[in-house]
Amino acid sequence: MFRKFATVFAACILGGFISSASGQTSETAGKSQAASQDLVPGTGAKVSYAADIRPLFRAKDIASMKKNGHFDLSLYSDVAAKAIDILGQLEKGGMPCDGAWPQSDVDKFKQWIKDGKQP
Ligand code: HEM
User: Which helix (H) or strand (E) holds 36?
Assistant: First the structure.
């Protein structure tokens, strides 16, 4: 019993030593990931609806979704309210119905949500 405990304890100490020696503590790993997601790397710029998301919707997308009585993709408030559902459609390639977005645009939309849906 004690042997088992001692082995687990030693493994934890060793694991902690290795991760701190490589400089990749969970804190530093998180920071470098956040930095690489900046719109302009290193600036901390966030994805915004007006500058980055609104231009991704074509006139056809806006008209079709309005016509179908769903929501208005040209309105920040509608897109923000439906963001998770919209992301679901974009990720599975269900919408727009005439061709899926490139992965880079889907990632941008996802980042917009992560950034707190900036207007
Ligand atoms: C929650 C998200 C969404 C839902 C539930 C949804 C649902 C629908 C539905 C039910 C239709 C009617 C389909 C038909 O009449 O056959 C439609 C049409 C359409 N949607 Fe969406 N949609 C979503 C998001 C989007 C987004 C984000 C875009 C564009 C980026 C988009 C672009 C279109 C287009 C272009 C059409 C017309 C398709 C056609 O008539 O050929 N939709 N959508």
Answer: helix 26-36
Number of domains comprising the chain: 2
Q: Which among 60, 62, 66, 70 is the best mutation to test ligand 1's pocket, defined by most ligand atoms within 8 Å of the CB? A: 70
Q: How far is the CA of 95 from the centre of ligand 1 (A)?
A: 5
Q: What single letter denotes the amino acid at residue 17?
A: F
In which domain, by residue range, is 46 found? 42-119
User: Pocket around ligand 1: residues whose beta carbon is below 6 Å from it?
Assistant: 57, 60-61, 64-65, 68, 70, 82, 85-86, 89-90, 95-98
**What tens digit of pLDDT does each residue of 55-114 get?**
999 999 999 999 978 999 999 999 999 999 999 999 999 999 999 999 999 999 999 999
Residues 108/61/85/99 CA torsion (nearest 10 deg):
-70
**Residue closest to 119 by CA, chosen among 52, 59, 31:** 52
Same domain, 32 and 46: no
| Residues 60 and 113 placed together within one structural domain of the fold | yes
Residue nearest to atom 10 of ligand 1 (CA): 68
